Amino acid sequence: MKRIYRSRSNRVLAGVCGGLGEYFAIDPVLVRVGMVAMVFFGGGGLIAYLLAALIIPLAPKAGHPEESESAERTAPRPPETRETRTETMHRHIQLLGGLYLILSSLFLIGAVVAFFALAGGGWISGDETAITLLTTIASVVAGILVLIALPGMLCGWGLLRYRPWARTLGLVLGILNLINFPFGTALGVYTLWVMMQPETETLFVAPETG
């Protein structure tokens, strides 16, 4: 059975698009264009890419792919320990923190673009009423986008530094994101799953003082 891998030879970042192109026998450039388009339409492409980079294995090294796959299937797997589960959650937390930082940055970029687009339209018109009205609207829209972005930015920063309060904030944002179907729902489910793991709770325990 043909398996899907991240490409070693046709890669820009993690080799996800190259691997998808090789698997479906299409030009990886088309896959990359589609992924970028999804990023700008709700951020789904970014979430999909990062999750795929985490889940899809890297292609075996050239030379003995069949032997590599056979060894992978037949080699006994070591029993999962608390240390390996904790290390796995480390990776999930780093990924989740990066997702919140990147998605929040998109909102901040949107705030800047919205402000200059609306306010600039007023200034271009030269009409004082239009300038005042559009600048006010631009400030309100940009302010709302900034307010939306700040909790996610703070959560991402806290998760990457394992601040105890970041886990609580992550749980709150995860619940709130569930209503933003489909991409917010996916992020919310992933957030709640990561934050509710016992190993995650251990990683975010505040150090004792005194």
Write the layout of secondary structure elements.
Blueprint: H1 16-24, H2 28-40, H3 44-55, H4 65-74, H5 82-125, H6 128-160, H7 164-177, H8 183-195, H9 198-203
Rounded to an integer, what's the Rg over CA atoms? Answer: 22 Å
Structural class: mainly alpha
Strand content: under 5%
Largest sheet: none
Shape: flat
User: Averaging pLDDT over every residue, what do you get?
Assistant: 78
The percent of residues in helical segments reads over 70%
Give a count of the beta strands, DSSP E runs of length 2 or more: 0
The span between the termini is 59 Å
Helix count, DSSP H or I runs of 4 or more residues: 9
How many domains make up the 3D coordinates?
A: 2
Low-confidence stretches: 66-70
What are the secondary-structure elements, in order, as H or E? Answer: HHHHHHHHH
Q: What are the salient characteristics of this protein?
A:
210 residues; mainly alpha
Quickly describe the structure.
This protein is mainly alpha-helical.
Structure description:
By secondary structure, the protein is mainly alpha-helical. The protein folds into 2 domains: 1-59, no CATH class; 96-203. It is 73% helix and 0% strand. The protein has 9 helices and no strands. The chain has helices at 16-24, 28-40, 44-55, 65-74, 82-125, 128-160, 164-177, 183-195, 198-203. Helix 6 (128-160) crosses helix 7 (164-177). The longest helix is centred in the middle third of the chain and has 44 residues, at 82-125. The termini are far apart. Residues 66-70 have low confidence and may be disordered.
